[in-house]
Amino acid sequence: MTEIPAAITADTRVEVVLRDELAHGDFAIASYGPVLRHLLANDEQSVFSDEIVARVRGMMADLARQLLDQVVAPGGAGEPADHSPEQIDSLVASLVTHPALLAHCHALALEWQLADRLQARLSLDPVLSPLLQALIASSDPATAAASMALLAAQARFVQAQRRMKLPLTELPGDLLHFSLVALRTHAAENGIGDAQAQIAEAAVRAKYDEGRSRIGIIARLVTAMGGGATAALSVTHAGVAMFLSALALASSQDRDLVVLATGDGQLARLALSLRAAGLKASTVEEQFVSLHPDVALPGGFDQLGADRAAALLARSTIYPGV
Fold this sequence. Notes:
This protein is 65% helix and 1% strand. The protein contains 15 helices and two strands. The chain has a two-stranded parallel sheet. The longest helix is centred in the first third of the chain and has 28 residues, at 14-41.
């Protein structure tokens, strides 16, 4: 097994090693946005996989089409309208200027890639996890109803990712707002009346409820579990989607950043996040076996407390979308 890079001596304890590795990972994350923006504007090869770039490009184009559809038929649920490639590309060019929106689409693509990989390697269903199955059978009507809603939302997410799509209603509120601002700008630059753009925006907002989005439902379910939310910190029990949300809540990090932490080159962030969430070192190791079976925790990791792990994460200078 490969160990997280470490050269521990009497003077360099495990938290120093993890802090340095976290800084290295932060530097890598900081480059993701600019590189991804460049790749979306060009067809060059890169360390970013073709699949991820194609999926992010597809989601951005799908968002643009949905926004333009609302201009043609506000609130309509019929067949998508035909838009010229130039119109779509122009709006996509505006959308990708927002670092957080780009980072969110990148995180969703990586989340799906992880779910797909674990399904192939561990037979982990990307829709119905053991924990979700148990929650659906809950005697509490509210929990059972929310769990059924999540089952449907997760099924839609899987289908959308396979088609490289992203419904506007699944965006976080601040990112939806930016998308609508981009639409207004696009409308002004392309001879679309301001009144028409405002009607389209109102139609989108009228159908939007962040609490009913997939991520909103997961957050509500995990929060309602209280102390039992520890069960959601096992990726093989909770499934990828709920695991990521639970880890983000427990470690006080943005969910998109937690998704990035599951990738290669971000092993220190993942280890610190799991420890900051309150998991014992042995349990952290179990998650690494599932997520990175060829990686071992550095010597002395069991001496690192949850408070120190949280402090190291708090000092991190990276934020999603930078």
